[in-house]
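Problem 12. The chain below contains 470 residues. Write out its predicted structure in token notation.
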Amino acid sequence: MAGIMAYGSYLPAHRIRRSRIGEALGTRPAAGSRTVASYDEDTTTMGAEAARVALRGLPEAAEVRGLYFATADPVYLDRSNAAAVHAVLSLDPSVPAVDMGGAVRSGVGALRAGLHAGAPTLVVLSDIRAGLPGGADERDGGDGAAALVVGTGEVVAEWIGDAARTEEFLSRWRSPGERYSRRWEDRFVEEVHVPAGRLVLEEALKSAGLTAADVDHLVVAGASMRIAAAVRAAAGVEEHAAAGDLLDEVGETGTAHPALCLADILDRAGPGEVIALVVLTEGADALVFRTTDLLARRRSAWPTATQLEHTGDDLSYATFATWRGHLPREPMRRPLPPQTAAPAARRIGAWKLGLVGSRCTTCDTRHLPPQRVCGACRALDEMRPDPVGGLPATVSIATVDRLAWSPSPPLIYGTVDFDGGGRLQCEFTDTPPERAVTGLRVRMAVRRTHSRDGVHNYYWKARPERGEQY
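Solution.
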């Protein structure tokens, strides 16, 4: 059977209450909150984090044979973003990594392609929803990512039905080179999306031999809160099933939202439950899944709800606007970092993006970064690769530097000791100065350290633990 073999999600550590946006701009305050990617996060880093979580739920015998990365907000054009995710995961070079970007529908398209691929395929969906101050995207959007390993065999959710409808009409658009999307008013879009969503759901359920009464969970993604509510009301499913869209506390995360909602439902669904996914874009897509008995043993080690519990919603609008580039601030009076050199980055790629150290096969000493000569027993070239990106660590030394250059000062850096050995000097992220203390438990996360001349440099930083269960 084809379906979802493993899954994972990623939500940034920061949220802003919509009421704060209204207060800052003098507009009517709205309820709820939205997630906000930090200054050093983008769609590539968030997608890589979600993929790392998903791969932890994959059986050891299963090997990913393809990677699809979809986003409507790519970091690069004319350069692969999927390749960076591939490097972070240390996948085999024989695994192809392909970008599918430019439109929200590319997300469900990547999922469809993965389901039809046969071999285990990692589908990574990530998005940052940015908008001009005072607009709906700024208020109701959200940032996040999710990853699904899909294929045939032992699955946690079987793919049992689908349907699609394509209609060319102007609802949301952004020309190449533009930063923000524009939207038509909801009244017009609702006239197209609601009938299309209802139709594809009926057809998908019919292909699965089901009716609306059989649906246990309904997700409507790709639309505003108003339109999503209208589609749910027209679907005819039981009231308890029309929930779980994360719009109130996360926001609408664009390309990532279908998979993000799926991950959240799989975190809490029981066996034999029917999940209907409706994605509204230039038309509509519907996919129907039924959970299996394997789900209880392969749930995500970092549930979406746990991530939400460990986020702070006290982000100020000034910080939010600065991270989004709406409020430029004077930088620290220090030299800017140099541009990343392609040859040097290529030579240390396994360490720089994969955080793969070395371990001496003679005395079992870990070395970070990797070395040829063992610092303990002096053995030469007796090393094996030793990835540490997924290991927890403890802060041994932390420094808050208010003079060093940083896009979001102060700069916090120090030394962390990994469980099982190995010490690393690194920068900290998502860490308030008062929390940067000896003994803090941290995890490593790949982040953007700086950008220069259109080239983005990625490396690993330490962040406080947020309820991970692995």
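Discussion. The chain has three domains: 2-323, 355-388, 392-470. Students who got a different answer should revisit the alignment rule from Section 12.3.
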